[in-house]
UniProtKB/TrEMBL annotation:
<dbReference type="InterPro" id="IPR012674">
    <property type="entry name" value="Calycin"/>
</dbReference>
<dbReference type="Pfam" id="PF09148">
    <property type="entry name" value="DUF1934"/>
</dbReference>
<dbReference type="InterPro" id="IPR015231">
    <property type="entry name" value="DUF1934"/>
</dbReference>
<protein>
    <recommendedName>
        <fullName>DUF1934 domain-containing protein</fullName>
    </recommendedName>
</protein>
Length: 144
């Protein structure tokens, strides 16, 4: 399979597409880019799960202490996951803006020659309705 640095890759995403306020673990498989720059790892892909007519560009940035998820399109937001830290984010959706509080409990990032996996566990609270334990996984492999 070879090294996946700076490649067009296959990306399997579970639990982050669509709206984070829904508790359905949808799995999406798409293609995108994987690269490393200035000591950070980037995973980029386009997502139509929120609105089939509008492409949402998603960038996941991973560095030593935190994971950022930036989304532009049907939704515009930046989510920051940092272990044992709480972050507030206004989360813009086609249904309105939600107040999101994220408290990250664990981040696992593994890079192998032909596969990269990211697992983030967090508690999410939407519009002060009580925290819900949640997580998302991203798996990056070479396209066949």
């Amino acid at each position: 399979m070879g090294d996946i640095m700076n490649k067009n890759v296959l990306i399997k995403v579970k639990g982050i597409q669509g709206s984070l306020v829904e508790d359905d673990a949808i799995e999406m498989i798409t293609t995108g880019q994987y690269f490393e720059k200035n000591g950070k790892t980037y995973i980029k892909y386009e997502d139509t799960a929120l609105d089939e007519d509008v492409v949402t560009s998603t960038t996941i940035k991973i560095d030593a202490a935190q994971v950022s998820v930036l989304r532009f399109g049907a939704t515009n937001t930046q989510l920051i996951f940092e272990k044992n830290q709480e972050h507030f984010t206004p989360y813009e959706t086609p249904f309105g803006v939600f107040e999101i509080f994220l408290r990250t409990t664990d981040i696992q990032f593994h890079r192998e020659i032909d596969k990269v996996t990211l697992n983030v566990a967090y508690n999410i609270e939407v519009n002060h309705t009580g925290a819900i334990a949640s997580n998302f996984q991203v798996e990056v492999t070479n396209q066949m």
